[in-house]
Amino acid sequence: MACGALKFGLRQNLSSLLASKHQSSVNKSRLSPPLRNWHASVLKTDYRKVWDPKYNKGTAFTHKERQILNIIGLYPSCHRTEKEQLFAVYTNFKAHKTNLGRYIYLRALRARQERLYYRFIIDRIEDVMPIIYTPTVGIVCQNFSHIYHTSMGLYVSKYDKGHMTHVLNNWPETDIRAVCVTDGERILGLGDLGANGMGISVGKLDLYTALGRIPPQYLLPVVLDVGTNNQQLLCDPMYIGVREERCKGEEYDELVNEFMQSVVKTFGVQTLIHFEDFATPNAFRFIKKYQNEYCYINDDIQGTASCGLAGFLAAEHITKKPLNEHVIMFAGAGSAALGVGNLLLKELLSRKITEEDAVKNIYFIDVDGIVTKDRKKFIIPDIKRFAKDLPPEKNLEKLVEDLKPSILLGATGQGGIFTEKILRSMAKNHKHPAIVACSNPTNKSECTAEQAYNFTEGRALYASGSPFPPVVINGKRLTPSQANNAFSFPGVALGVLCTKPHTITDEVFLVTAHAIAEYAREFAPNENALYPPVKEAANVAFHVGVAVAKHIISCGAATIYPIPKDITKHVKDYQYYTDLGTALPSVWPYPELARLPLPDRDEDTECAD
Predict the structure, then answer these.
(1) Of 204, 444, 500, 550, which residue is the catalytic one?
(2) What band does 464 get if pLDDT is binned at 50, 70 and 90?
(3) Taking every annotated instance into account, which residue ranges of this chain make up the domain Malic enzyme NAD-binding (predicted)?
């Protein structure tokens, strides 16, 4: 009986369901017209393509664009102009209380709207460069494993040996023209940060685009992850890199060599390979090994050198004293200082000065004191040419007092090493002593702008690696210059990519130094500034790019064909612009074409041949 009742209930429910479906179908047929606009589904855009950072305009999509692209409703109803979007970005940017928070916000913007991101950097370069580059990028690299949320570049590890070409081919863009690679062993003045060094590769290439206006799709940031000797990272459960000590020796060299060969095999022999923040001995070795074999630069050495020499050329112009008559002292003998010293020597030799006379007024001081000829070992052979026949001395204050340098460059990573006594001693001996405190970030600067101006009565020609605020001395506002590589490497890259040489000579960096110094003179002819203001960095990059392109073409090293008659226009045409434009394809009017009359259906006619 129970079974019969169950069957009866099921029949009743099924009947009700069928009746309900039938009624629903009847109602739909009465209310909905037949679907005739099949083209709507044919034209429907994949919203993921529209949301690709390269194409996404966000609320700047017009309502017409939203309707045609079938994305209406995926954005709020408002339509913002680019100016309104930039205001919204700036408001949110300033709302973050820490520089790290601002960096994370900008990375999220970059992941959403590429063109808006770069337009914001270009328009607000003075506000943004300290966030995406020095000094904040140092904090970013220290915390990179903890803020990592999406891939910003390519990670090539020691375990990819023998398969690096395969790894490089996994990058979604195929037309790569410049690669910035670090192994993370010497990030700024912070030491070994391993795979966290991705932050510096990303920061460098962001400035390729923001300042050099090089299209971002051509650029690839890379970390060569060979391990780390940083025990704090090895013990950090959040660390994103290979949790092993660094490989070294032959194994390390083989990894770097395979990477170089793989880049050329994957992207072509004209691919610019930019080495960044390798340990000093390795950096110098690799320049000697690769400079004449690849389209290769090392920004820590060569980029810093061109920027440093530009400051010296500016000091020469301001003081009206030939460069070879200046006494130049380098505090620090790492990649930055020695790079500047080597390029300075090339500049002096180019003026037909003998090497003996060129080096006699150039002094290097490292952790063991002044570099002298009686040293038993030189870690970097290049420094031997600057060794002096003097007694050993470690006290920097005494060396400054005895040797009386007119130009003092610091690249020590030791904050405050340029003491009051040193600064006052330089002011006593020279009307306009040049003081360049290169070390980054700010807390590692050899002296602050305030110290330099206060202890020299405001007469110092001061520049620093990281920004310092203006200083008022005796009612006069003094704005410190920034000796920032951002004045050099974006322009060098722009000139190189426009001309496609197979190798890059040291003369390119001499050209770069002169172009930066020339721009500083022309921009502010009546000011005692060693460098142009940071707000002019994009114009400096273009000026450098044109100078480098002209030099490469004049030397016959360019591989482009035909050689452009107007090189300035050629460089400008290569650049990336952030204008949003329309998201729709171009349309144009067509005339009403002539038509032939058709025969009537009932007539039995034949078409003539």
Answers:
(1) 204
(2) very high
(3) 301-553
